[in-house]
Inverse folding.
């Protein structure tokens, strides 16, 4: 396809979404209007998706001028190159799934959400994300970034509940701290010129002193890191993402976080001439810390959507750890390209499976009317097809073969491990430590998602809502299925995907074959071959069962529980399931158990009832945020003493100030 | 650990050999055991028998004797018999004690979930007839006999039956219903 | 073609010997208890009996329950195909990456957990929660030990590690790898659900991990799960034995004579492994589950020390 067609398609996607938003604003709260608007969003995203895939392939194969191509409408503001195109693919994919889902999902919430504002905010949010990755100048970038962030605020508070408004407030504060640091960082690099392009920034960065560079780099890292949910700036994410309507949560967790990744990659690779070792190590360590805390908290979390948000913290942490490791390797003079490619692979996979998981969470919650995993259960019997799709997403989220996430982590581990002997002993040892942290994160991710699947779909329903769920609307099932199938494809054809995304960095101009392998010196990984092996062995096992064993009909009986009548109260809940992890990591999770004994009267020995209370709190909240908040409050309280309402005292203050001014002026 | 090892080595093997019994032994037990082994071997192709024991309210006397069958002296494992934890894994259900009301449901479900072909053996007087508790208000089906709750193939009387009587009963059960 | 036949022989042999390994462990344990014990072939008869029996399934279960045995047996078989046990240079040598093994083991554990949770009983849930925790915590040690071996051997797939140690035994080149082997042993005991992590012979539901999850399976499905767990233990144990005692390890192109010697060596190694497991089970007590993190960190730090020492010296 020609350049014009492609830019036309991408532009149509953006404009279509905007038109949808405007229509939503004027079309009232009817379900039909919502359907039309969401369909328009979906069609626009579809068109944009085709356009951005075309643009990506064009950039990678150099059939399109390699650096960038400008959108004819606004050449100085918006350009697209391979990086932008890659992230545009991701954005369009996420919004396509979410909009399709919203057609089936939103009508049942007509009383909760106001469709005009929600859909208008969604449109601005989507367009903001698209514009951010296309922006070519500081002003365009920050404008689009703010549009995305502020629209997201309205998505968080869409149901206007108390909890949502509180979450929205936390989000608003954090996102503006982030935006402020971005603005400062950009202005430092651009020497105050808001209209500077990224190319100018790159040129400036070569001339600026080291201290300014370091300051702006860490301001960038804080700004993008706070949006991506890296510790210690992750605190808003598990509050804000779950409060939005589920299709918006899918876009926020699946897509918006990737925009932060895009920003960081663009700055780190495109603007800074080089990243010193210490900076790269800090990025990696923060990434690994986020991954570890994210997955650990997810493992003990029982609120489905919050758990998924914590898992996003984990995955974004991994992506940043991949980028950081790439920067480290570049400083060491070792091959760094695989790390950036694998960060892209993981970002794409995370978009697919996390969108799918949030959408399925929406579908589940719309029927069980709770986000609490402890009150679900038994849905696999009622929704066999849906649970099968969800199982696929669970595999993807746990990074297990044959799904795409596994190959991302595999290449990451392999690439680190292969270079252990090429660096100094100490660095090699640290690399192995990183490898085992990633392995632990992987293990805990399997735990987390094993828990999620078991608690939602298996055993008996633990609440009457879960017991009486109705069949799901097709619009709610299919996006989830598509996400699961895409995750599987991303794994089965993982070699091709990896090579394709490597093309963003290297100057390879060939499109890899579908069954391509991933090769390193001495190692060759063939995802397709492994998949075939699994399928063949599975088929043989089934044949063996069919012809090698007795085929008597199965007799259905009760569950063996030593003869008690079985009730749902006997089951392991999600909380119970995670109890060992809560115990083993109690010092990190600040987990506390204590027995509360209620007596008839305090002096009386008779016990009315006993119950076990447990709590888990965040180390960051306890040891970082709370001290800061307390310090601010303490200073405020001290300052408040000045405000004692005595007029003479105020006049004294004015006098003192005047004297001081005089002293300093002279 | 070394103490334990030296103990293991110095104690030797008190299980009498099936063929030549040099140590003090119980030839009758051996004979029955070997016949049992042969029968199990000819059993529908498989050569293993798994037992799930259900204590339906016994005085634990039967349980002591059943535990004794697994010790170094009797060691019925060598005849291809093993105790398992779930009725779903079992071929044989052994019931002991008079069946109390509280255990009636448990016994029925345990029987129900044992896969065919299955056998039920009532071990001890209580399970056979209800024993001295027969007719008590706490007994299931009024009598407390296992056969009034689930179909019983073989009864092994005794209070408690000895391991010898137990494996004789097992032999009788399997031979009576050769499948 | 030669490679394919070799892989086939290796896989079939391991699968065929898996119940024997269980039988030998039980036999050795019986001897430690001064009993005569069942025949070493007893597990074969038990499996055959199960295959011919009826199946009873709980009414609480969903489709997941019926899929579990197939997936678990598949993952174990894939392990048997990928991991070198008899020798090296098979058809799947390239695919036996050190990072893949942990993931395949995790799939098996995950599905066992689903099987345990699907039946809605407290026993299944308890076993599942514990199994999942163990599987998560053992992962770093698995990856660490395999990476150490790979670094020492200079190859990134298990097959290459096997080949390298067969050419230059570890005690000649990296004697301090013995710590890594100890750590790998800890990992294998945990993955194989043996002492001190799990008690395979218990009848008490509260002390179960693996057994609690398969309480509800019967007939052919139970046979599949028991077979899968036997294969897993055998493959892992033979892999470790092949590394520690690299004698009689066959190269894929070897002649009939070497092959026969290799198979005999493999059976001897199997016996030694079974004896070692039985020895551990007769002399140690099972650890309390809530002390498992000590076991896991011990394994991890053993592995780490092994890595540091073997890389430095």
């Amino acid at each position: 396809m020609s350049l014009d067609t492609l830019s036309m398609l991408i532009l149509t996607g953006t404009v279509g979404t905007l038109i949808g938003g405007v229509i939503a604003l004027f079309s009232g709260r009817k379900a039909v209007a919502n359907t039309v608007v969401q369909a328009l969003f979906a069609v626009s995203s579809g068109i944009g998706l085709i356009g951005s895939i075309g643009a990506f392939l064009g950039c990678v194969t150099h059939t399109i001028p390699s650096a960038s191509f400008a959108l004819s409408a606004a050449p100085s503001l918006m350009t697209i190159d391979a990086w932008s195109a890659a992230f545009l693919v991701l954005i369009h994919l996420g919004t396509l799934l979410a909009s399709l889902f919203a057609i089936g999902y939103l009508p049942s919430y007509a009383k909760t959400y106001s469709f005009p504002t929600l859909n208008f905010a969604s449109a601005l949010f989507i367009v903001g994300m698209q514009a951010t990755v296309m922006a070519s100048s500081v002003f365009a970038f920050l404008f689009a970034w703010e549009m995305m962030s502020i629209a997201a605020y309205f998505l968080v508070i869409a149901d206007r509940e108390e909890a949502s408004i509180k979450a929205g407030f936390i989000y608003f504060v954090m996102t503006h701290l982030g935006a402020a640091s971005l603005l400062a960082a950009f202005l430092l690099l651009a020497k105050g010129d808001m209209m500077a392009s990224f190319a100018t920034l790159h040129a400036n960065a070569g001339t600026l002193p080291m201290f300014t560079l370091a300051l702006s780099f860490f301001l960038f890292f804080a700004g993008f890191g706070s949006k991506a949910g890296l510790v210690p700036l992750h605190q808003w994410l598990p509050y804000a993402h779950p409060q939005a309507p589920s299709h918006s949560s899918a876009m926020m967790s699946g897509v918006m976080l990737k925009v932060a990744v895009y920003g960081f990659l663009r700055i780190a690779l495109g603007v800074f001439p080089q990243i010193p070792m210490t900076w790269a190590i800090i990025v990696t360590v923060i990434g690994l810390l986020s991954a570890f805390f994210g997955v650990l908290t997810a493992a003990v979390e029982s609120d489905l959507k919050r758990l998924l948000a914590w898992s996003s913290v984990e995955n974004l942490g991994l992506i940043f750890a991949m980028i950081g490791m790439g920067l480290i390797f570049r400083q060491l003079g070792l091959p760094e390209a695989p790390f950036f490619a694998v960060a892209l692979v993981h970002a794409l996979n995370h978009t697919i499976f996390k969108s799918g998981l949030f959408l399925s969470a929406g579908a589940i919650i719309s029927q069980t009317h709770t986000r609490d995993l402890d009150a679900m259960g038994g849905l696999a019997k009622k929704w066999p097809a849906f649970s099968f799709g969800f199982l696929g997403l669970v595999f993807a989220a746990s990074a297990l073969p044959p799904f795409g996430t596994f190959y991302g982590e595999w290449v990451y581990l392999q690439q680190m491990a292969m270079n252990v002997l090429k660096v100094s002993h100490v660095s090699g040892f640290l690399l192995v430590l990183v490898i085992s942290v990633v392995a632990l994160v992987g293990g805990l991710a399997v735990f987390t998602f094993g828990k999620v699947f078991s608690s939602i779909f298996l055993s008996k329903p633990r609440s009457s809502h879960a017991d009486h769920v109705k069949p799901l609307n097709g619009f709610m099932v299919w996006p989830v299925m598509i996400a699961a199938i895409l995750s599987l494809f991303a794994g089965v054809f993982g070699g091709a995907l990896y090579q394709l995304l490597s093309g963003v960095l290297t100057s390879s101009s060939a499109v890899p074959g579908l069954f391509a392998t991933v090769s390193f010196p001495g190692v060759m990984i063939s995802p397709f071959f492994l998949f075939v092996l699994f399928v063949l062995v599975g088929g043989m096992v089934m044949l063996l069962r069919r012809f090698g064993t007795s085929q008597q009909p199965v007799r259905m009986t009760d569950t063996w529980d030593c003869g008690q009548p079985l009730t749902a109260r006997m089951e392991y809940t999600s909380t119970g399931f995670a109890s060992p992890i809560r115990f083993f990591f109690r010092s990190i999770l600040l987990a506390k158990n204590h027995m509360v004994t209620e007596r008839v009267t305090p002096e009386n020995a008779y016990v009315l009832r006993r119950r076990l209370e447990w709590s888990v709190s965040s180390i960051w909240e306890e040891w970082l945020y709370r001290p800061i908040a307390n310090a601010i409050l303490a200073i405020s309280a001290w300052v408040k003493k000045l405000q004692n309402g005595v007029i003479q005292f105020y006049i004294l203050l004015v006098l003192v100030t005047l004297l001081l001014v005089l002293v300093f002026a002279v | 650990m070394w103490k334990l090892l030296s103990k293991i080595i110095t104690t030797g093997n008190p299980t009498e050999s099936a063929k030549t019994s040099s140590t003090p032994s119980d030839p009758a037990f051996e004979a029955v055991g070997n016949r049992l082994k042969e029968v199990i071997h000819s059993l529908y192709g498989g050569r293993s028998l798994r037992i799930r024991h259900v204590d339906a309210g016994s005085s634990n006397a039967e349980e002591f004797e059943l535990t004794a069958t697994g010790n170094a002296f009797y060691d019925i494992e060598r005849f291809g018999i093993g105790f398992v934890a779930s009725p779903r894994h079992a071929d044989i259900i052994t019931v002991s004690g008079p069946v109390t009301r509280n255990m009636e449901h448990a016994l029925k479900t345990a029987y129900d979930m044992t896969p065919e072909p299955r056998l039920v053996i009532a071990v001890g007087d209580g399970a056979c007839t209800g024993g001295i508790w027969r007719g008590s208000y706490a007994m299931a089906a009024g009598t407390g006999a296992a056969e009034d709750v689930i179909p019983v193939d073989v009864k092994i009387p005794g209070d408690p039956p000895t391991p010898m009587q137990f494996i004789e009963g097992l032999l009788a059960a399997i031979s009576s219903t050769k499948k | 073609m030669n490679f394919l036949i070799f892989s086939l022989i290796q896989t079939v042999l391991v699968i065929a010997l898996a119940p024997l390994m269980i039988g030998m462990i039980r036999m050795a344990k019986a001897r430690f208890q001064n009993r005569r014990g069942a025949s070493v072939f007893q597990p074969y008869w038990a499996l055959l009996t199960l295959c011919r029996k009826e199946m009873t399934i709980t009414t609480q279960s969903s489709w997941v329950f019926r899929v579990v045995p197939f997936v678990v047996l598949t993952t174990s078989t894939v392990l048997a195909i990928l991991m070198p046990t008899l020798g090296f240079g098979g058809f799947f040598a390239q695919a036996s990456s050190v990072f893949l093994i942990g993931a395949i083991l995790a799939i098996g554990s995950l599905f066992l957990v689903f099987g345990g949770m699907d039946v809605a009983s407290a026993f299944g849930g308890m076993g599942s929660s514990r199994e999942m925790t163990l599987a998560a915590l053992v992962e770093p040690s698995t990856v660490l030990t395999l990476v150490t071996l790979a670094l020492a051997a200079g190859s990134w797939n298990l097959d290459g590690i096997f080949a390298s140690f067969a050419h230059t035994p570890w005690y000649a080149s990296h004697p301090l790898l013995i710590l890594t082997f100890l750590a790998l042993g800890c990992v294998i005991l945990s993955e194989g659900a043996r002492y001190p992590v799990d008690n395979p012979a218990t009848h008490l539901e509260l002390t179960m991990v693996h057994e609690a999850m398969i309480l509800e399976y019967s007939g052919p499905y139970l046979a599949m799960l028991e077979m899968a767990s036997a294969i897993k233990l055998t493959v892992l144990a033979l892999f470790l034995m092949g590394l520690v005692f690299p004698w009689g390890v066959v190269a894929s192109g070897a002649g009939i004579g070497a092959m026969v010697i290799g198979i005999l060596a493999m059976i001897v190694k199997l016996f030694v492994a079974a004896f070692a497991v039985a020895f551990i089970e007769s002399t140690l007590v099972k650890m309390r589950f809530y002390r498992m993190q000590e076991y896991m960190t011990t394994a991890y730090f053993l592995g780490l020390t092994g890595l540091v020492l073997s890389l430095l010296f």
Summary: Chain C is about 70% helix and 0% strand. The CA atoms of residues 241 and 269 of chain C lie 6 Å apart.
